[in-house]
Amino acid sequence: MERVYTVILGGGRGQRLYPLTRHRAKPAVPLAGKYRLIDIPLSNAINSGFRQIAVLTQFNSASLNNHIFNTYRFDHFGASRVEVLAAQQTEEGEEWYQGTADAVRKQIRRMHAAQIDHLLILSGDHLYRMDYRELLERHIDTRADVTVCALPCPVSEVHQFGVMRTDHAGRILAFREKPRAGSDLTDLEPPPERRAAWSMSPDEMLASMGVYIFRFDVLRELLSRPEMLDFGKDILPGILDSHRVFAHFFRGYWRDIGTIGAFFDANIGLTAHESPFRFYDPTAPIYSRSRFLPGTKFLDARVSRSIVTEGCLIHGAEVDHSVVGVRSRVQQGAVVRSSILLGADYYEGDDVRAENTARGVDPVGIGPGTLIERAIIDKNARIGANCVIRGEIGRPDQDGDGWYVRDGIVIVPKDGVVAAGTVI
């Protein structure tokens, strides 16, 4: 039995997802109302039978630690575990991670005792379902030193990813990380037989998913070179002539949720009648924290094309084409369209709400008569009555007083307050 250790890269500051990452690590950003981004790679690994897992992070890791501790508890007598490894001061230095490969290098001492043969490396901000056992099988069958998961990508989007060219057997001959838009990609064109075998259209190229599996002894040797800081920029392009590097083709739903626009589209896409991704699969469910919340209550409400999670109260409101997170409260006459409500971390009791109202403090949730459209309302936000919060495609990025606009979407950050009657 091949021994596999899984490493999930938590990413840096998550600037492209700001302000959702202002108070939390990128993998801890809520998803689909009740999950976190980190639940995707963790669930895929667990469902694949790979249960020795480390999550590498360095910024705002408190909420991530709390989520993992409260969710992924295995039998104390088994070998399964999920641990968070944060950047830290050591005798070797005190620098932050300088790249994806450097993050693994700085924690590799913690992995030596695991007696592993292969290291599976995943990203913490992608939405997809995958059985990594198929990747391992391909890796072993080809006697690869490194195997890279790849999928077809439109030429217009390849500047966001690593792009590769393979031979007829799938061995990678060329690799370029995030080529500049408009640059010459002729040397990365897939060979005709590969394009036909993988049913790729003429306007598609082969892009990296950011999912790799390395022979552990090979990776340890590569990481002994201090100039190797990043897998896509340094390691993969630098070893194609000296090592056996193969592609593992994947044709399924996969989304990089690294920007506000991508986060918004992925969540709203889940509300479609034939959603491209479904969280429940009896053979490979996506796991998350058990909260033991009551069922959601609808009082004279109209809800359509939406996901509404546990513990919510929708009272006399209209919700359409939206995702409503746990413990959300939407009051009389409010309208929520094409928006994401991340919910709340706690309930306000009736006495607290009455006390706050007497002090002029709006309760947590969406106030009466408020319109929200093309927006993301983060946790514990207090939106007063008769507000208008409306994003628009093409609206320029903007930082307001307690709100932001990114990719045409208005974001009210965690614990944000929007006074009654405000128009954004």
Produce a short descriptive summary.
The chain has 424 residues and is of the alpha/beta class. A hairpin with a 5-residue loop joins strand 9 (162-166) and strand 10. The longest helix is centred in the N-terminal third of the chain and has 10 residues, at 62-71.
3D structure, described in words:
- The chain is 19% helix and 28% strand.
- Strand 29 (404-406) and strand 30 form a beta hairpin.
- The chain is globular, with a radius of gyration of 23 Å.
- 44% of the residues are buried.
Parts with pLDDT < 50 across at least 5 consecutive residues: none
According to CATH, what is the class of the largest domain?
Alpha Beta
Secondary structural class: alpha/beta
Globally, the shape reads globular
| SS element count, helices | 10
CATH topology of the largest domain: Spore Coat Polysaccharide Biosynthesis Protein SpsA, Chain A
DSSP strand count? 31
Largest sheet: 9 strands, mixed
Give the total of domains: 2
Average pLDDT, all residues: 92
Give the helix level as a range of percent.
Answer: 10-25%
Q: How far apart lie the N and C ends?
A: 58 Å
Q: Give the name of the CATH architecture of the largest domain.
A: Alpha-Beta Complex
Radius of gyration: 23 Å
Strand content: 25-35%
User: CATH homologous superfamily of the largest domain, by name?
Assistant: Spore Coat Polysaccharide Biosynthesis Protein SpsA, Chain A
